[in-house]
Amino acid sequence: MPAISVKNLTRHFGALKAVDDLSFEVPRGSVCGFVGANGAGKTTTMRILASLDYATSGIVKICGHNVINAPAEVRSLIGWMPDDFGNYDHMTVIEYLDFYARALGYKGKERQMRVQEVMEFADLSNLSDRMSNKLSKGMTQRLCLGRSLLHDPEVLIMDEPAAGLDPKSRVELKNLIRILAEEGKTILISSHILSELGEMCDSLLFIDGGKIVHHGDAESLRQGLDAKAGSYYDVQVLGDAMEVANWAVTSPYVEFIEERKRGGRIRIESNEAEQAAIVLQRMIKDGLSVTEFHKEQRNLEDAFIDILGQIEGGNGPQTTPPPLPPQAAVATAE
User: What are phi and psi of 103, to 5 degrees?
Assistant: First the structure.
């Protein structure tokens, strides 16, 4: 049985289809990255999974429990970490967590032990007497994570947890997520920082306009959905870096992607090494003083942009969800 099962999920707000016939599964003990532009339907989907919103139609289950029919059971199984959460004036970090531990039914020494365990895990022990509404963004996110872990949930739903964090705080958060995954937690995490999702996640779920446009692992995405993806090269030259951009604009089968300090990044509309050799020869023939020309791995941002471009062009990719683990396949067959 998958930890998260979504079948034909739809959510309308008047004439707006925020979620449009969404179906996917997340196996137990895996980390799934949830990716999409602003307004794509990510937060609405996550709120429905967390039993904070209702579906217009469709079925959503957490560890086999229907979100609509058994919300109490679902809430005992999930930890919800929203992109923004309320705080309380004049309440310290330890008082904040103790308040929620009481609300979850913990009592006496068990409550004290659970609060201390969460504070140690989220690295909040040295902040115990700090006012909870006077924390930095990174500290606040650790507090929110601690709150969501108090009842030791099986499934963790995280909506943009890295938004606004500095590099150090992002690394700390990524390490905590990796530890939770190693402990067997199932994690659905949305983020705009695709490179970090690729490092953390077993699978990536791309959504656009309320519909799934890709569900697979990061490596398959980097390799390209089809031959049209082409290949990417870093080009460095002597002299003006903009020479690469100016040359690419007038060159067939070459697309300029971004400017770099000593040149730029280009995409060649072929994966063949022979085509790359022809492009390099043409660069030199046209007078560019090329000092470096090497192939780069396709990053997740490129892949996401390619997917959206194909959809806008009316040639949306045909994608298939990753195969179910053996346990889930048996349950489906039964």
Answer: -65, -30
The one-letter amino acid at 247? W
Side-chain-facing half-sphere of 284: CA atoms under 13 Å: 9
Hunting for tokens 């980097």 — which residue is that?
Answer: 222
CA distances from 78 to 14, 74, 100 (A): 29, 6, 15
Q: How far apart are CA 268 and CA 259, in angstroms?
A: 16
pLDDT digits (tens, 9 = 90+) for 137-169: 889 989 999 999 999 999 999 998 888 788 888
Full strand arrangement of the beta sheet holding 263-268: 254-260, 263-268, 231-237, 290-296
- In sequence order, the β-bridge partners of residue 233 are 266, 295
For the CA atoms of 217, 220, 225, 231, what is the dihedral angle to 10 degrees? 130
**Both structure tokens of 262:** 């000593």
Type of residue at 322 = P
Q: What is the pLDDT of residues 6-62, one digit of tens each?
A: 999 999 998 888 999 999 999 999 999 998 888 889 999 999 999 999 999 999 999
Distance CA 148, CA 187 (A): 12
